[in-house]
Amino acid sequence: MNGGLSPTLSNCNLTYPLIGKWFQPGINELIYINETYVTSKGTCIEQDAINKFIFYNDQARCKRCILFIQRHINALQFRESECYEFDDPVDRICNSLTPDTPLYTIFRENFQAIECPIHELWKLKRVNENSLECTPKSFHNCLPSNSFRLTYNKCSIDKDVTAKCMAIWSDGPNNYVVARSSNRKKFICFSYTKAKHDDNHPLELYLPSDDSCRDLLSRESATVFTLDSSSLATSDINLSLPQWTLGKWSVVGGSSKHFYLNRTQIILYSNGKSTQVFKLTKLLRNKKHDDYLNNQTTIRIKAKALEHCISITYCITLIFRSHLVIDLSLVTGEQGCQENKSRHQLQKSDTSYTLFKQPNSNFDTSTDQTMCPQSGIFKSISNYRPVIQISACTGGSVWTLLNGCEKPNELTFTTTCSHEIVPDVQVITAIKGTCLATWSDKKFQRTLVIYEHSRSFCLIHPTKIMKASWILYGQSCNDVHSIYNNGVENGLHYTGQCTTTNNQQQQQVPLIRLSSRTDNRSSSNTIRNKRSNFDTK
């Protein structure tokens, strides 16, 4: 592919990011660039300046000067001279390049998509008349942020298209964007100018007359648009969430999700990655009075969030349970955000979460005011399998819950079973949890319990009678459907009040502690030998 270069010719080396496979809109064949060769241009024999190179073409037996302009790692522009005789001086050849020399733009074939500059809806308003039969109507930002959707006014030629941004660069006040459709059949190129103090909204947008991107730098043949001001997102300038809502919140149960709340938005993370951003737009008030947010334990907010390339309206409700626990619910659609609805008129949430903050080092379980409700001893029937995966017993076993027996805000959950391999050895599993918040409705009393520093579950009691308790491991303490599905027989039954004997019972039995995941965690497995007594080390 190096064209049979004569040994008498000098060497020069092209370097990355010039090297790669490139395509030029409107041309089917790819352009290959390596250290010494460019497709259809020939072999590099000399470098005249920083970005000017001399190429010799064996087939045409002539040489030319090419000026490369690296606009972006995925976008390369070049100007090339006519093909001169081999004996012509280099200065003469390269000096023939002027600003009027045609400028070509090529793009990297195996590009990595980059973040688009479109962060919200751009609704377009055409300024000039041109030959375009179908004019664009709007640019929609998408999730993920490396893509956007271009919609057109109703016509038979152009259809709505989703594209990924591949190159962005600026030249003075002008900003250039190159994107390729998701099916890789179409290119979308445009340029725009923007205000000095507003990076999100262009003043004017210029769209070339075709999708070849050849006229990207030309304004004469472009269609000119401005932004329709009615499309700009509006939000309540006074909207700011109160202090008790702010910060990082974990989701109860075994979920990998967590939320981060700041003054103007709510961000949902899954496995450490941001998956959805809710931009708060309006505070929904049932009663209007001064200092509304700080005096309320329930807040309803209207928000917008992207799902792919569509903006979805949400009604978000935040309910204060304690300084370490809140409820968050999401309802989709404008109807769920109608103002001045009473509590019984509010729709059931599409999705609800119970959130908690991990207590900091200053949190003192002995002095904390939150008490575990309905203190006493609860036991399960045989073959009970709790939803929290803490037991070394693979089969079912009898579980005992000591609720508020040792300390008012703590509980202990224990079980004993025979070792699978050594039947004479009993395996004891126990966790110690701290109650962070308790709240009630007409049917149930709910308590969020944290254990092992960051794990959590919900403990559910009937409001009127101390008949049974249930442990929920879902993402919300308010989702009690599983209780009705499992029935009372799968709960923990109340057997009596806390007694000193129960509190000290385990201390009277010699135990061996098995290796646990960390020494300072509150759950552990221990074993008891039935055949002999021995001292615990």
From TrEMBL:
Taxonomic superkingdom: Eukaryota
Span list, region Disordered: 515-537
Residue span, DUF7042 domain: 113-227
InterPro entries tied to this protein: DUF7042, DUF7044
Compositional bias segments (type: Low complexity): 515-527
Boundaries of every DUF7044 domain copy: 11-95
PANTHER family: LP06548P (PTHR22255)
Descriptive protein name: Uncharacterized protein
UniProt organism field: Didymodactylos carnosus
Lineage, highest ranks first: Eukaryota, Metazoa, Spiralia, Gnathifera, Rotifera
